[in-house]
Amino acid sequence: GQNIDQPTEMTATEGAIVQINCTYQTSGFNGLFWYQQHAGEAPTFLSYNVLDGLEEKGRFSSFLSRSKGYSYLLLKELQMKDSASYLCAVRDQGSNYQLIWGAGTKLIIKP
Amino acid sequence: DVKVTQSSRYLVKRTGEKVFLECVQDMDHENMFWYRQDPGLGLRLIYFSYDVKMKEKGDIPEGYSVSREKKERFSLILESASTNQTSMYLCASSLARGGQRDTQYFGPGTRLTVL
Lengths: 111, 115
What we know:
The structure holds 2 protein chains of 2 kinds.
Chain A: E1 3-5, E2 9-13, E3 18-25, E4 29-37, E5 44-49, E6 53-57, E7 60-65, E8 70-75, E9 84-92, E10 98-101, E11 105-110
Parallel strand pairs in A: 2-11
Antiparallel strand pairs in A: 1-3, 3-8, 4-5, 4-9, 6-7, 7-8, 9-10, 9-11
Chain B: E1 4-6, E2 10-13, E3 19-25, E4 31-37, E5 44-49, E6 56-57, E7 64-70, E8 73-78, E9 87-94, E10 105-106, E11 110-114
Parallel strand pairs in B: 2-11
Antiparallel strand pairs in B: 1-3, 3-8, 4-5, 4-9, 5-6, 7-8, 9-10, 9-11
């Protein structure tokens, strides 16, 4: 079946680096998305990976390994405004190309 | 910038009422989606549409229906609201199917409470 796993909650310190992992099992992988969601707000798009490797976008980077069914989101130089939930979603060929969503990782940044 | 708007941020309804949630996007996107989001669960797809007057069931369509009469507008209807439909409802749209064009952009959400 299809499954996405992410840690429920993580804590990090302002200025530090944090890595949020996502593992997935799908019947036909067709791309992986990361979204950020602040409390009470809608998810906003961060990154998209379809090939293996690292995609860098400023302070945020996303990595994909299709053979391992694994991705991570790396946040550098953490700021208080990065406190949010981070959602991993995989597009699945076996689900009519719909997105399968993880439950999200709540990231708490401490001063 | 993509703009997706939803008709209400907060809504309180009574059990058995018919509820309409409206979503409008202004970027000529082909695809539109309705999700619900509950604590501890991932986003769950209710219905989606790839074209005007076209709809397909998602993972949890029971108790819901949708309408897409115009490309920019996608409505979610709760025929007879029940307390287990209390949730955050999120509408999203994407440009087209395939690749990064399928990146979904979300509206601000409607927090629905059914009493």
